[in-house]
C-alpha cells in the first residue's frame, strides 16, 4: 500500500517522518508549502511538536524581531541635529540563546519558531535547501496558492 500524499499527513506525522526519520531541517515555510497550510498554522505546528517531543534530540531555531537598544553601535544618525534612528533587527537564534538574544533588544516586536532540526544549527546557510524547496513549490503554483498560505509575494 502506497503512503498517503503529503497533504493528507498531519503536521505531527509529517514532522516525525521528515525531521525524526529522515533527519531533515523543517522551516515553518517548508512545512506550510508541503502540507498546504497557512504559515501561522505551520509555526504553531512546529511549536506544538517541539513541546510534545522535548525529550528527543530536536533543536529549535527562533526568529526574534525587535528594535536595538539606544546607544548601540548599530544606531544611525542622519545628521548632528537629528535624533538617532532605531534599527529594526531580525535575528535567527538557537533556543539556548533565546533569552540572551531578546535581552540585546530594547523592544522585542515578535518571536516565533523558525525551524526544527535534528541537530544544533551552527550555520544558517544549511537552511538554503529548504529555501530552494519553497521556491520550487511556489514557482510551480499560482499566486492564489501562495497567497492562501500567507505569502505576501506579488505575482
What can you tell me about this protein's structure?
The chain is α+β, with helices and mostly antiparallel strands. Helices cover 37% and strands 21% of the residues. The chain has 6 helices and 4 strands; from the N terminus they run αβααββαβαα. It has helices at residues 11-21, 28-35, 39-52, 98-103, 128-140, 143-148, and strands at 26-27, 59-68, 88-94, 105-117. A 4-stranded antiparallel β-sheet has the order 1-4-2-3. It is globular and about 60 Å long.
- State the helicity in percent bands: 25-40%
The computed structural class is alpha+beta
Instruction: Note the total helix count.
Output: 6
- Radius of gyration equals 18 Å
C-alpha end-to-end distance: 39 Å
Strand order of the largest sheet: 1-4-2-3
The profile of the biggest β sheet is: 4 strands, antiparallel
Uncertain parts: 1-5
Tertiary shape: globular
SSE arrangement, N to C = HEHHEEHEHH
Count of distinct strands? 4
Q: How much of the residues is beta strand, in percent?
A: 15-25%
- The averaged pLDDT comes out at 82
Amino acid at each position: 500500500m502506497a503512503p498517503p500524499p503529503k497533504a493528507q499527513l498531519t503536521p505531527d506525522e509529517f514532522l516525525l517522518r521528515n525531521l525524526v526519520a529522515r533527519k531533515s531541517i523543517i522551516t515553518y515555510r517548508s512545512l506550510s508549502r508541503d502540507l498546504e497550510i497557512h504559515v501561522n498554522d505551520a509555526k504553531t505546528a512546529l511549536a506544538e511538536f517541539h513541546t510534545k517531543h522535548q525529550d528527543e534530540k530536536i533543536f529549535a531555531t527562533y526568529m526574534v524581531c525587535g528594535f536595538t537598544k539606544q546607544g548601540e553601535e548599530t544606531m544611525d544618525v542622519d545628521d548632528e541635529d537629528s535624533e538617532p534612528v532605531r534599527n529594526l533587527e531580525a535575528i535567527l537564534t538557537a533556543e539556548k540563546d533565546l533569552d540572551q538574544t531578546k535581552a540585546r533588544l530594547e523592544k522585542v516586536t515578535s518571536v516565533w519558531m523558525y525551524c526544527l532540526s535534528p541537530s544544533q544549527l551552527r550555520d544558517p546557510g544549511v537552511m538554503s535547501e529548504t529555501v530552494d524547496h519553497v521556491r520550487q513549490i511556489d514557482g510551480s503554483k499560482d499566486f492564489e496558492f501562495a497567497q492562501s498560505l500567507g505569502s505576501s509575494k506579488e505575482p
